Amino acid sequence: MITPEFLRLPDLASRALTGSVVDASDEFFAERENLIEPARAVHDSSEFGHKGKIYDGWETRRRREPGHDHAIVRLGAPGRVHGVVIDTAWFKGNYPPHISVEATGVEGYPTPTELAETEWITLVPKSEIAGDSANYFAVADARRYTHVRLSIYPDGGVARFRVHGTPLPDPRFLSGTIDLAALEAGADIVEVSDSFFGDPRNLLLPGRAGHMGEGWENARRRAHGNDHVVIRLAAAGIPRRVEIDTSYFRGNAPGAASLSGGDGATWAELLPKTRLQPDTRHHFALTSATPITHLRLDVYPDGGVARLRLPGEIDPKALADAAIAWLAALPAHHAGAVLTAVCGPTEAETLLATGSLRPEAIPATAITALLGMRSDFG
């Protein structure tokens, strides 16, 4: 089977990105939280509990009345959804024969009751799936969502629910000093020399690594040269400092590291080759005055790094552009709520009269109000 291209993108629903299963119609046999665990589902055929066979997944009871079951996931990183995976690993005689997936975008932190009353948009119509399999569904939708709803027909078990896409953060929380290299802010890995033992995207995850397996680790280098990773930042910005965290890497931390910043094609030194210590959070001040869009971390000659943080400020013009792109990507009901708050119901209704929000139609006054900044961003 050809691997879907969307699997290269981050899993926006993952617990590693602080996703959460906020509601489920039933979880009698296995807890809903298992759906978004980053690790693959495991199985022990001899493991039983007082409710029956224990599964590493979400499993509902056998439905004896009309209807179907569902679970709602709050995305850890709201964004555009490019594809979903319904993984029924180990569920062979108890998987749901059909599923569907819907999504919504909302303000704030709604309750399950409030989510039930919002507008849901179909990403995957009711479709047949197979048991004990990874079922892939590509999604062609350019809107930005905060929650997804997995429905199973009529009941059964799903091991993992993956929602692959591109983060599109709320620009109202991107002003001031932020981590320019955070995955949840829109940064991502675009190049890596080697990732034999650990995914380089782990560098950009929120929180501290829990063990060595939650960082980026390359194989032992036997040739000349050194390993590196290139990060596309959340937006063009000026980095103020960097944290290179080698926590849990004791006998396999890099001996040294250096940083370069640029546009992905041309580079300037941000941090010269500097000695690192094992199992240590290293903090270094940076003095760059020019906005950069990409960061390159070189480790010498190889080794593991748990996390990389790059506190700094987004360039004002880049922040304004991000705000325009964010507004234009919102579902109509979400965009209406935001525009009503920043420019009033009359103008909001006018802007959304065609049913979609065109970037070129968004007035500068709306962006200024949204960001709370002066209209000096060009």
From TrEMBL:
Q: Annotated pathway, please?
A: Nitrogen metabolism; (S)-allantoin degradation; (S)-ureidoglycolate from allantoate (aminidohydrolase route): step 1/1
- Gene3D superfamilies annotated for this entry? Galactose-binding domain-like (2.60.120.260)
The alphabetized UniProt keywords are: Hydrolase, Purine metabolism
GO BP terms in the entry: allantoin catabolic process; purine nucleobase metabolic process
Q: Allantoicase domain spans which residues?
A: 19-167, 186-313
Superkingdom, natural source: Bacteria
Keyword presence, Secreted: no
Q: Does the keyword Glycoprotein apply?
A: no
Q: What is its EC number?
A: 3.5.3.4
Catalyzes what? allantoate + H2O = (S)-ureidoglycolate + urea
What GO molecular functions are on record for this protein? allantoicase activity
Q: Which NCBIfam families match?
A: allantoicase
Which HAMAP family does this entry report, sorted A to Z?
Allantoicase (MF_00813)
Report the sequence similarity comment from the record. Answer: Belongs to the allantoicase family.
Question: Which named protein is this?
Answer: Probable allantoicase
